[in-house]
Design a protein that fits this description.
9 strands, alpha/beta, binds nicotinamide-adenine-dinucleotide, binds zinc ion, 2 domains
Length: about 350
């Protein structure tokens, strides 16, 4: 009976509340090793020149590096950042702090791992390939939905795959949940990233891997998503609830898995660079066969917020392109097994996936 149940890590420390970002200096102080070991802040460049940057608790030779979230994080980008940090400082950093959306949070996780583990980050894409503990790392989300603040993966685009560094060392050592940091998120982006959370819930709750642990988090997250996207909450309440929905959605997939939308969305992202949130929405709208209630709710939410999804994304693709997307999607076996069951190969064929991609 050994190892029947997975023993996975959780974020050991979390602070929640408007203005909690102001406590960051105090939180970092005991983690500072000494004068020469800086804290490196990776910050979404949308904040460059904004007041938030003035509130970052810099000491000694700490450094801010601004990161563009225009593209999803890449293995070479992680490797280049690690090389630069090693070159610029005599000592390994005391900590890495990621401030931004899923893109910057995943980058911060990956950089903290690669500072202590040799070689290129592509070596660690997969499950439990990391050998040594990462540098102390802190996640501070500024947009809610991905659950990256709580998950044990850092999703990277590599030369031949889009796959996470899934390990016990990936999870943040500290998370700061300050809903006020999400003020200023563009409405469409708020919808796309929030729907990532909604889709995590639907995929987890209807999956074959579901257990009471996942279900309890998934149901709570789903309830919060419905409040945020279907009721008329105050802006503050809506930000607070979506932040907690993201957290619970992430916890829900820890013990289960995502499903059909994520598998297909990874294909779109790999071939065309379509970003995760919008990619999930583009796919999910055509998944009535798999998630009838979820798709009906999704349409209601989309309508309430007047969101129009782009179309014709796949209209000029070659047969080869479709094959690439299909093979990326089919390679994500745990997702299909969760969604359909162990016999998934009897139900899911390349032709079936092609039909869905052709609609997008
Ligand atoms: P993102 O980080 O790419 O950010 C989306 C946009 O919002 C960017 O333009 C960014 O600059 C902007 N933004 C962020 N905060 C803002 C703010 N407060 N005000 C104004 N603009 C702001 O988006 P995302 O949807 O959070 O993350 C997507 C990434 O997350 C993908 O790379 C995906 O692979 C990853 N992901 C990871 C996990 C995980 O468990 N690790 C889960 C799901 C998705
Ligand atoms: Zn997702």
């Amino acid at each position: 009976l050994m190892n029947t149940y997975r023993n996975f890590p959780m974020v050991p420390r979390v602070v929640f509340g408007n203005g909690s970002f102001n406590q960051l200096g105090e939180i970092l102080l005991p983690k500072r090793k000494h004068f020469d070991a800086p804290v490196i802040f990776l910050i979404d460049d949308v904040f460059e020149g904004k007041e938030l940057v003035g509130r970052v608790p810099l000491l000694f030779n700490d450094k801010i590096i601004f990161i563009s979230a225009d593209e999803e994080p890449k293995t070479q980008q992680v490797d280049a950042l690690v090389e630069k940090i090693k070159f610029d400082f005599r000592e390994l950093p005391s900590g890495i702090v990621g401030i931004g959306g899923g893109t910057v949070l995943d980058l911060a996780k990956a950089v903290s791992i690669l500072l202590t583990n040799e070689g290129s980050s592509e070596k660690y894409q997969g499950w439990d390939l990391v050998n040594k503990p990462a540098i102390y790392h802190v996640g501070i989300p500024t947009i809610s939905g991905t659950g990256a603040e709580v998950s044990r993966t850092a999703v990277l685009l590599g030369p031949d795959k889009k796959l996470g560094i899934n390990s016990d060392y990936t999870t943040f050592d500290q998370v700061v949940l300050d809903p006020e940091l999400c003020i200023g998120v563009d409405k469409k982006q708020w919808f796309y990233t929030g729907m990532d959370c909604f889709i995590h819930c639907v995929e987890s709750l209807s999956g074959t891997y579901l257990n009471a642990f996942s279900q309890s988090y998934g149901e709570k997250a789903l309830e919060l998503c419905k409040e945020v996207y279907l009721e008329d909450l105050s802006d503050n309440e809506s930000r607070e609830k979506l932040m907690m929905a993201s957290w619970h959605g992430g916890m829900s997939i820890a013990y289960s898995q995502v499903g059909v939308a994520h598998a297909l969305s990874y294909g779109l992202s790999y071939l065309l660079g379509v970003k995760h949130g919008i990619g999930n929405c583009l796919v999910f709208q055509y998944l009535k066969e798999f998630y009838p209630e979820g798709v009906a709710l999704f349409n209601k939410m989309k309508e309430k917020h007047n969101i129009e999804l782009p179309s014709g994304i796949c209209s000029n693709l070659s047969d080869n392109d479709f094959d690439t997307m299909i093979s990326v999607a089919l390679s994500l076996e745990p997702l299909w097994e969760n969604a359909i069951g162990i016999d998934w190969k009897c139900v899911i064929t390349p032709e079936k996936l092609r039909v869905i991609y052709q609609k997008i």
